[in-house]
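Troubleshooting: if your tokenizer reports a length mismatch, compare your output against this known-good record of 73 residues.
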Amino acid sequence: MLWLLVPFVLYAGALPLANRVEPVLLGVPFLFVWLFAATLLTPVAVGLTWRGDRRLRTEAEAEAETEAEGGRR
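Known-good structure output:
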């Protein structure tokens, strides 16, 4: 779930630091480059969160099955 903080930090937390016209990268103001990079990194962060959540959910389900089987005996 901590991966979901990455887009927030990139958009809101660091925006005051990147809000300047200079330097220019490839003829584009730095702020636009920053926002474009944040937009590309957001699906990566969401995907990592989903992958981690699915792994934790699978482990919890396996533990629950083990406990249920142990309680039946």
